[in-house]
Design a protein that fits this description.
heterodimer; A: about 110 residues; 7-stranded mixed beta sheet; about 50% strand; B: about 110 residues; 10 strands
């Protein structure tokens, strides 16, 4: 069964460093998303991406964040200068249309 | 008022019990409704998806949506210890899914 994959599973970085989180969505999906979940809190929407551009973003997704689909399979989230409060699980999701979203296993980001 | 509200639990039930998980939402723009299951430190796993009021059944799971009262339910029949997880109510709009805080369920053997 097709699934969303994410790498790395765990990333440790120092405050102020740049990180890139990678996702491979399900192959025939057209809409891509990033969410995050701070430990013990709810899953929060960050950004949606369709047709090589951002469709919607939340107030969390400020200038420090960017997304890219560099080729036909990968979808990346970049955080330019990480802060302690960026520590969270980051989930990628994809969908064929604007409906049921399938999530990846997540990348745990730890900023020290 | 929060957009999506769930009782956080924890909810403990004996194996074999029928479980009822509930959720309310405030945004009338939500067009489709999902339930996800999330194990600790794992990604949300899609359980049920529906876009209309009424019931939808899939195996031991039944999702119920009442758009007029903005109320969503998930029923689990013959609950198993492997159902122990956090259940996330997730109504969706045009571009994104809005998650509730989740209800933690423990099924005791």
């Amino acid at each position: 069964e097709p699934e969303v994959t994410q790498t790395p599973s765990h990333q440790v970085t120092q405050m102020g460093q740049e990180v890139i989180l990678r996702c491979v969505p399900i192959s025939n999906h057209l809409y891509f998303y990033w969410y995050r979940q701070i430990l013990g809190q709810k899953v929060e929407f960050l950004v949606s991406f369709y047709n090589n551009e951002i469709s919607e973003k939340s107030e969390i997704f400020d200038d420090q964040f960017s997304v890219e689909r560099p080729d036909g399979s990968n979808f990346t989230l970049k955080i330019r200068s990480t802060k302690l409060e960026d520590s969270a699980m980051y989930f990628c999701a994809s969908t064929v249309g604007r409906d049921e979203q399938y999530f990846g296993p997540g990348t745990r980001l730890t900023v020290t | 008022q929060k957009e999506v509200e769930q009782d956080p639990g924890p909810l403990s039930v004996p194996e074999g019990a029928i479980v009822s998980l509930n959720c309310t939402y405030s945004n009338s723009a939500f067009q489709y409704f999902m339930w996800y299951r999330q194990y600790s430190r794992k990604g949300p796993e899609l359980l049920m998806y529906t876009y209309s009021s009424g019931n939808k059944e899939d195996g031991r799971f039944t999702a119920q949506v009442d758009k007029s009262s903005k109320y969503i339910s998930l029923f689990i029949r013959d609950s198993q210890p492997s159902d122990s997880a956090t259940y996330l109510c997730a109504p969706g709009g045009y571009q994104k899914v809005t998650f509730g805080t989740g209800t933690k369920l423990q099924v005791i053997p």
